[in-house]
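Severity: low
Component: inverse-folding endpoint
Summary: output formatting inconsistent between runs
Steps to reproduce: submit the following structure tokens with default settings.
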């Protein structure tokens, strides 16, 4: 009930701001395709929405003529969250939003879309706002049930990403209210869990190399393995003991019926080494033969598990009669070259959903 009330309050609080900002920016003389981006030019948001629970955009930091960082105060987490934004190629009209979630490094290291792919330069030529939160390493971008020695105060990423942030982004950037979302590895689970919780929010969801089952023994163990491998915190503090309903609440396979009406794309490799698992691959996270061995052994093991989980999601969606695009590659480990490939393979669906 609290989540629903927050969303209603946010919606009522910012709807007027969205329309006012769009009218001011796009209807009062800013109509030419070569007009400077008003957000970049003025170094401020098009509106200053504040939600009923106090979530707001505290600051706008402009980096260049297309990139900025929003410091967004999350009432649910009690702190500012940096949110990186790449503005559309043409800002003369309201544009859609593509949320890009990173994996376990939470977009603070080098294992993210900025540092490990060419997706951002590709999207720079498209008429879409690209939004990336910074933070949330090893958090599963979910709502934790308790404080944690590693994570600190119980993170509420699901509340932030699904309830607090979208209406603030729409108002501040004058978007057209159309959203899609992409996630890989850890966040592949997160984007589907967000879509289950807020099916009205996204037109398209692309999930690469995730394990969407969280309440069966395989899924629970996958989550626990990821957290223990990265030292990201105690899974008991995330979703409680195995009988806590948070494990089932976040199981996208269990609640796949809520995904009806959303365009879905899911990718998984087989875990067998493929074309990017070579010593000269630009996607190695560790250089040389040791990096290849890590991709083949650790990345292969993780991807094989993701493959099983993704097949289980395919079975579930088929049972429900929900259409989805599945890409099961015959090779491919748990690594960036394959996620970049998956992004481009899913781009036709995403661009259609975004109205591009």
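Observed output (run 2 of 3):
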């Amino acid at each position: 009930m609290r989540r629903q009330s927050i969303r209603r309050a946010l919606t009522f609080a910012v709807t007027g701001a969205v329309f006012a900002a769009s009218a001011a920016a796009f209807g009062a003389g800013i109509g030419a395709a070569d007009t400077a981006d008003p957000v970049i030019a003025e170094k401020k948001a098009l509106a200053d929405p504040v939600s009923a629970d106090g979530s707001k955009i505290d600051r706008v930091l402009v980096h260049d003529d297309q990139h900025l960082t929003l410091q967004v105060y999350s009432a649910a987490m009690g702190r500012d969250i940096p949110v990186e934004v790449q503005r559309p190629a043409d800002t003369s009209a309201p544009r859609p939003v593509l949320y890009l979630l990173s994996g376990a490094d939470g977009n603070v290291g080098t294992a993210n879309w900025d540092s490990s792919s060419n997706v951002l330069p590709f999207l720079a030529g498209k008429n879409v706002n690209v939004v990336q939160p910074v933070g949330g390493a090893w958090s599963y971008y979910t709502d934790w049930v308790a404080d944690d020695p590693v994570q600190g105060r119980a993170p509420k990423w699901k509340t932030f990403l699904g309830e607090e942030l979208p209406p603030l982004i729409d108002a501040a950037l004058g978007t057209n209210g159309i959203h899609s979302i992409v996630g890989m590895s850890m966040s592949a689970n997160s984007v589907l869990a967000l879509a289950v919780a807020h099916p009205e929010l996204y037109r398209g969801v692309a999930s690469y190399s995730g394990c969407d089952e969280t309440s069966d023994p395989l899924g629970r163990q996958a989550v626990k393995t990821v957290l223990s491998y990265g030292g990201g915190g105690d899974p008991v503090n995330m979703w409680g003991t195995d009988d806590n309903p948070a494990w089932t609440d976040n199981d996208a396979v269990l609640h796949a019926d809520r995904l009806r009406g959303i365009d879905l794309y899911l990718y998984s490799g087989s875990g067998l080494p493929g074309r990017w698992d070579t010593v000269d691959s630009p996607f190695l996270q560790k250089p040389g033969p040791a990096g290849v061995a890590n991709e083949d052994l650790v990345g292969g093991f993780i991807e094989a598990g993701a493959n099983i989980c993704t097949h289980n999601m395919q079975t579930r969606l088929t049972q429900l009669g929900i259409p989805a695009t599945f890409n099961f590659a015959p090779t491919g480990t748990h690594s960036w070259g394959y996620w970049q490939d998956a992004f481009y393979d899913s781009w036709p669906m995403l661009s259609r959903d975004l109205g591009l």
